């Protein structure tokens, strides 16, 4: 029932047990998501606790994802301020939380934003900070993230998009020194 206003307020046991917390999104920055924690509410107790709780935002980073600049822009388009999200604690680094971020899409469906970013080709899979490399959870999550990244790679999405054959030919022709010299000569002819 406690409202966490700083990453240091969250007990070590919560991080070790990979507890899921609920929060309200406030801002999306280059550093991560700024989220206001929403504690479990007990009708009478919660109303009393609200009077003493201070305000503060938790910095939540997408664990195992190295965001591209287009990924930040995509998050800003897809997520709305004050939207409720779930975040599963995987690790804590200084004042930031490494988390799996889950977004409800309807009554029974939720989407993992970490995987969705990679599936859209808006980032790269990275090391999951906070989890031990020899743990089952680390390898299970890392495998899921790599599969999502592979889907983007196969579909030529986002940062994995390659130029088409005709685009590559057009670029090579326009960058050719002979063609550039011809263009300069044609422009010289027009001006004289």
Automatic annotation (TrEMBL):
Q: Which GO terms describe its cellular component?
A: extracellular space; membrane
Instruction: Output the superkingdom of the source species.
Output: Eukaryota
Listed Gene3D superfamilies:
2.40.50.90
Q: Where in the cell is it found?
A: Membrane
Indicate where this protein is primarily found.
membrane
What membrane topology term does the record carry? Single-pass membrane protein
Give the record's keywords alphabetically. Acetylation, Membrane, Transmembrane, Transmembrane helix
User: Does the keyword field hold Isomerase?
Assistant: no
* Family matches, as InterPro entries: C3orf33-like, SNase_OB-fold_sf
Q: Which PANTHER family match?
A: PROTEIN C3ORF33
- What is the official name of this protein in its record? CC033 protein
Species, as recorded: Grus americana (Whooping crane)
């Amino acid at each position: 029932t406690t409202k966490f206003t700083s990453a240091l307020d969250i007990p070590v046991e919560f991080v070790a047990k990979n507890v899921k917390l609920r929060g309200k999104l406030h801002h999306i920055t280059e550093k991560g998501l700024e989220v206001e924690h929403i504690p479990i509410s007990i009708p009478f107790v919660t109303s009393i606790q609200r009077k003493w709780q201070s305000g503060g935002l938790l910095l939540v980073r997408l664990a195992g994802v190295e965001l591209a600049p287009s990924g930040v822009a995509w998050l800003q388009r897809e997520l709305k301020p004050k939207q409720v999200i779930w975040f599963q604690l995987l690790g804590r680094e200084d004042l930031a939380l490494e988390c799996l971020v889950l977004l409800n899409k309807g009554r029974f469906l939720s989407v993992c934003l970490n995987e969705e970013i990679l599936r859209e080709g808006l980032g790269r899979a990275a090391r999951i900070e906070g989890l031990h490399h020899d743990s089952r959870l680390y390898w299970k999550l890392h495998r899921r993230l790599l599969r999502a990244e592979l889907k983007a790679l196969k579909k030529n999405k986002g940062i994995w998009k390659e130029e088409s054959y005709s685009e590559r030919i057009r670029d090579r022709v326009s960058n050719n020194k002979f063609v550039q010299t011809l263009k300069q000569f044609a422009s010289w002819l027009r001006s004289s």
